[in-house]
Amino acid sequence: MKIKHNKKRNTAFVYEALVREITVAVIKNDSETKEKAVAIIKKHFKPNSALKRHLECYRSLYESHNMDAKTSEKIIREAKLASRLLDTQGLFVGHSDLIDDVNKELSPSVFNNFVPNYKTLASIYQIFSAETTPKSAVILENQLISTMTAAAKGGEELEPIDNLALTSFVTKFNEKYESTLSEQQKNLLNLYISSFADNSLTLKSFLNEEIGRLKASVGQSLEMAEFKEDEDMREKAKKIIEILEGFGNSQIDDKLLITVLKTQELVKELVINVDND
What we know:
Blueprint lengths: L10 H18 L2 H14 L5 H13 L6 H16 L3 H19 L11 H11 L5 H16 L13 H15 L5 H12 L6 H21 L3 H5 L1 H15 L8 H23 L1
Helix pairs in contact: 1-2, 2-5, 3-4, 4-7, 6-7, 9-10, 10-12, 10-13
């Protein structure tokens, strides 16, 4: 019989929920919330802390893909051992302090944030618990091995986010820009959320193509009558192209994400204007 999953004491879940809180704050341009969430992560997941070491035990499992079954079994065994060698009382206190800071500095709603690999994290929580029965542990480990041996693109973590979850996530972005997200913006946000599961490989590939598309679209706008007649608009368009070109070898960060989202919105408006002419 499985023990009850307490997500507030699931180290990896709380960490991922905080990462998603930062993502929403970046999109909403809410620097205060972002800074508070980052400060909480730095405080509680600093190197050699109990929570940081526990998080690494989780990560060794939910970030592993394309493994053979034998290697997966070994990783699970070592992760379980490392988890149980941690100071139980120290870990409990660490969780309590983390929960308290999230509630006071941010909001209890953080614990309701959508985390794509929630089921996997819940299974690992059960596997790490000394209270889980041997039978349940074996069943859960077999399920986890299936995930670890699968290709990353077929794993649970990279499963496309359903419309309801995506709508909930991007509501705050819509509140700021008062517009419906384009398909390209949805793709960008979807991949940004999922990027934590595959080291941003899929996101980087998408951005390479998307930035090229945006540069071409803005470049074409220079041929529009409105731009030819307005020197200021022409200069702004050229500046946008210059900024996009500068992102070629840049690290994916807040500035890049926001710039691409805003440029996508601009290009969408340009297309609408052309269609209405």
